Amino acid sequence: MTTDPGSDYGDVVRNHLTRVEQQNAVAIDDVAELVLASVRADGTVLTAGAGHSLAAVAETFYRAGGLACVRPIYHPELLPMHGAVSSTAAERRTGLAAEVLREAGLAPHDVLFVFSTSGVNPYPVELAAHAADAGCPVVAVTSLAASAAAPRRAGTTLAENATVVLDNLVPPGDATYPADAPVTAAVSTLATTFLWNLLMVRLLDKAAEAGVALPLWRSANVEGGDVANAALLRKYQTRIPQLG
């Protein structure tokens, strides 16, 4: 393996995540305020994505240490495991966002997170636009650089329809290695889940300062976890059917 400075993939990732943390510090604080206000109002945090961005949605839902008031919204056609080519086609199909949002429902005291690194396909863009029209705050977790380089399939971009933007700083094409001509090692999943957990840390600190108890899951694989989670399941199962 070459020992040139910065050529090691671990260094690439660490440097990238440092930049993500530094450049999103103010926006993370703003998003934490939005989510805390939603928790105080007994709202729901809805999380959405398509293709590999659904990995970020999975990170937000029913996760040890995660918020219990999270509802994932998606459509089976958006999952690559249900058909790789068809999942790309679904993300580019106009009208699917309205369909999934009708089923999920939106209220002004909710918050919608849309994960999409390119941020240009109709599904994520229309999710954000419909939510904004309904008066629901929208957090776009995207890459401004990737959006700028991608074809605008929906006329606007996810970021242009968002209340707050968290920029994962992913380069166009996502690959990061080797640095001089990257062809592998996508960084979008790492950067996006890092942003979500930076938010969780800031949210916890803000909630503690405000005296607000966050509804947080415990691991089901530690002593007392099932008992601790039972009350949260009773509270949220009727609102979040995916908890069934």
Automatic annotation (TrEMBL):
One of its GO terms (biological process) is carbohydrate derivative metabolic process. InterPro entries: SIS_dom (IPR001347), SIS_dom_sf (IPR046348), SIS_GmhA/DiaA_subfam (IPR050099). Residues 31-209 form the SIS domain. Transmembrane segments: none annotated. GO terms for molecular function: carbohydrate derivative binding. PROSITE patterns: SIS (PS51464). This is SIS domain-containing protein. It comes from Saccharothrix coeruleofusca.
